[in-house]
Design brief:
eight-stranded mixed beta sheet; 213 residues; six-stranded parallel beta sheet; UDP N-Acetylglucosamine Acyltransferase, domain 1; globular; alpha/beta; single chain
C-alpha cells in the first residue's frame, strides 16, 4: 500500500515538473529572448532557461518548432550546463532552422553560424566560428583583437552527437551524422556518417539523400 502511494506521488510530481519545465519555462524564456532581441518563430519550446549574450547590432533567430533543452532532465544523458548563445561582433549571425533543437552546449559566432532545418544537436555540443584568442603568444599577451573567424554552415536533417566540437570554417552537408565526441575540423559532405578526432568519413548513407520538408 505504501509503495503504491509513493509511486502515485512520484507520478504526480513528474507530471507537475514536466508541465513546469515545458510551459512555465517556455513562457519566461520567450520573454527573456525577446528582451535580448532574439527573433522567435512559431511554437518555440524551452526546457529550462538558456543564456544569451547578444552583441549590439548582431542577430539571433530561432525557426518554427525549435526546441531548446537547458534542464538536465530534458535530455536522456543530461547536460553539463544550460545552453549558451553568444554573438561577438555587430555583424554576427546565429540562425537555427525550423524543427531543429539542441541540448545544453554552446554556439558562439563572431561572423556566422547557420543551422538548417530538422537538425538535432546532441548534449553539450560546442559550435564556435572563431578561436577566441590570437594564435601568436605575443598577440595573446597584448590582448590583440587579431582573432581568426570563419562562418559555419550546417545543413538540413543533420544529427550531431553528444560532446561534439565544431570548429571555424566548417560546413556539414544535409542528412549527415556526426558521431559523439568528434572534433570537426574540416568540411563533411552530405549523406554520410563521420566521426573521430579529427573527424573522418566512416561510410556514406546507402539510402541516398533524404528529402527534408
Amino acid at each position: 500500500m505504501q509503495i503504491n502511494i509513493v509511486n502515485i506521488i512520484i507520478k504526480i510530481y513528474g507530471k507537475v515538473y514536466r508541465y513546469f519545465v515545458k510551459n512555465v519555462c517556455t513562457y519566461f524564456a520567450k520573454i527573456y529572448c525577446k528582451s535580448k532581441g532574439i527573433q522567435l518563430g512559431e511554437n518555440v519550446i524551452f526546457y529550462g532557461l538558456l543564456f544569451a549574450n547578444v552583441y549590439q547590432g548582431s542577430r539571433i533567430k530561432f525557426g518554427d518548432n525549435t526546441v531548446f533543452r537547458s534542464d538536465y532532465k530534458g535530455n536522456a544523458i543530461g547536460i553539463n550546463h544550460r545552453i549558451i548563445l553568444r554573438t561577438q561582433s555587430s555583424s554576427a549571425v546565429i540562425e537555427i532552422g525550423n524543427g531543429s533543437g539542441m541540448s545544453g552546449g554552446a554556439i558562439c559566432a563572431h561572423k556566422k553560424v547557420i543551422i538548417g532545418k530538422n537538425t538535432l544537436i546532441g548534449a553539450n555540443v560546442v559550435i564556435a566560428d572563431n578561436d577566441f584568442h590570437p594564435i601568436e603568444p605575443n598577440e595573446r599577451l597584448n590582448n590583440s583583437s587579431k582573432v581568426i573567424s570563419k562562418e559555419i554552415l550546417i545543413g538540413d536533417n543533420v544529427w550531431i552527437g553528444a560532446d561534439v566540437y565544431i570548429l571555424k570554417g566548417v560546413s556539414i552537408g544535409d542528412n549527415t551524422v556526426i558521431g559523439a565526441k568528434s572534433v570537426v575540423t574540416k568540411d563533411v559532405p552530405a549523406n554520410c556518417i563521420a566521426a573521430g578526432n579529427p573527424v573522418r568519413i566512416i561510410r556514406y548513407n546507402s539510402q541516398g539523400p533524404i528529402e527534408v520538408q
